[in-house]
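Reopening this one. Same input as before:
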Amino acid sequence: MSRTAVPNANSTAAEGKGAPVSRATGPLGGLRVVEMAGLAPGPFAAMMLADMGATVLRVDRPDPAPRAMAQRFYFTDRNRRSIAVDLKSTGGVALVKRLVAGADALIEGFRPGVMERLGLGPEPCLALNPKLVYGRMTGWGQEGPMAMAPGHDINYIALSGALEAIGEADGPPVVPLNLVGDFGGGGMYLAFGMACALIEAARSGKGQVVDAAMVDGAASLMTYFFGHRAGGAWPGRGRSVTGGGSPFYAVYETRDGKYISIGSAEPKFYAELLRQMGLENAGLPDRADTANWPAIRAQLADVFRTRTRDEWCAQLETSETCFAPVLSMEEAAAHPHNRARGTFVEVDGMVQPAPAPRFSRTPAALPAAGVEPGIDLHAALAGWGLERTEIDGLAAAGVVS
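Same output, byte for byte:
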């Protein structure tokens, strides 16, 4: 299945009218999700569900905190409508409960106890809707000695063992982008957990709470490496084949100051790499001996610096060497392979990653741009069964804005 980048895929959102009421396209078409607005991992999980066709309604605050960019640039807020609700009012809590009663799932990312204090914890919500999948996104989890402590991605991956394993052998741990905790170990695991619970609820008729903690998810991502440690095959930070130690699984600078990646881990790919570089008869030392790795790396680096990145691409990109250029975000969107697959799409003139993964029979629709908090009041609530006069009454009472 292929896609191509389509400009202005959602002109409706660009005009300020919000996202579609229903996104029936995709494998999750027909599911209804209430999202309590939050940061990073929660919105990412909601984006994943919405990308796959779920109708997600974001419940924002009436006075959201200032953000670093305009709303349209928060791509993880795509594909859903927004209402602004005063959760400190009894009417606001009652409105969310009404939405929950007609939903399949709820996402919240507050500290433990906040939803309970609002009267919207799992117990009252599941009493209203026994099939509800109640997704909770936190850093440390719902219990444990650090459950109430503040934290960020760097702290969660530090406690999981992931951060200590990333970096150069003789240097400190290197802080990666917040992919490991927030998005990989957080939002992705919440979305996966909710999908699992939704399948089970369809069978049993009973909902449940999904406790997704970033420290748990980051630890789960480390399963492969914990296995190596248990088997005595973990050499330490910066010393493993895929962790920066080996010369045949590394990044090299080219003549024009750009970079390429080499993943010639298997002997056959490494042999072809040397042949392509003209080093098959250069007498390089045995790569099986890790003591030889620095010398091999130095020789490969010297050769790679003799050509530009594009010249190496022309020679190696489709070779049996496991090669790819190191691209910027702009370059990645323009690369012929990504363009052929539609890996990136254009929405309202802005390039962003397309929904993933792909489905042969129920493909995801093109994304719809994110909307300003509260902009969809009438259209959104009408889509959840409220009459216009009722919505007007809630607005007049200050419950919604």
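So the earlier flakiness isn't reproducible anymore. For the record, Confidence is low (pLDDT under 50) at residues 4-22.
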